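Q: What structure does this chain adopt?
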Amino acid sequence: MITPALTRPAPAGLPEPNRPTSPPGSAGPVTLVCLHHAGGNSSAFREWRNALPEGFVAHPVRLPGRDGPVTTPRRHPGLAALVRELDEQLAEEVPCRYAVFGHSMGAMLAFWLVQRRMARGGPLPELFLAAAYAAPHLAGSLLGVTSEDAVDALDDVTLAERLRAAGGLPAELLARPQWLRLLLGTVREDLRLCAAHRYVAAPRLPMPVHVFGGRRDPIVSVEQLRGWREHAAGDFGCEILDGGHFLVQEPHAGLLPALRRRLTRTVPGPQAVGASPGPRTVGPSPSPQTASTSPAPTRTK
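A:
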């Protein structure tokens, strides 16, 4: 399940990046950019829109090709291309102060999005939050799938059963193969994206990093979550909650209250922000090495 690669993200000779600061005169709310799990879409965060602390607004990201009718999933040329699209999309949608949260596959996308912005000197988040995803240098499989070929080799029934066992698929859908085919097409595309991901050394994240995990997560271990420490240049926290892999959809797990506490403790609200220097530029970071990609609704990684 794990393919440990490079443990020290910062290449030799590369200085630690500067911590991000708020743009001058930022008086508006802080946007929480939310990236969903594999097989999902932006509706995973619909309950968050009115649940964040005062001064924060949720921005569920619509991945390219998602949130429309479930027909044929869009296949992306690769992780790097998807991250580039996201960067351009968010440059228009989120022009001011922001933090980023990624759930499962969304954490991988969030990590490489920040790396891309670091490389080009773009605006960085004030806080990086991840849930239910192994540290990038440890992530290597999902649902026991370690390659794109292995994804293609899984029949729909086996894939659906693995999803159900992980808590990502209602049991009643197993009896409706016509619905499953539509949903599983998107899941397969996202599984290919995750299976194709290969970590390459990258600078540490200069903002505070905090990760959440579920005590009963059958996919990601506590050790894999704690591995995120290797990617934090400064403040780091790891919080284990009483839930499974799909913490965003498990109200009893307490993810939302924990996230609210972390936001208010780490990110100053608009009323506390005065004029300050803009984001600093950091050295170049590598692009993720991968193969194919794509998007749609269901719960996976």
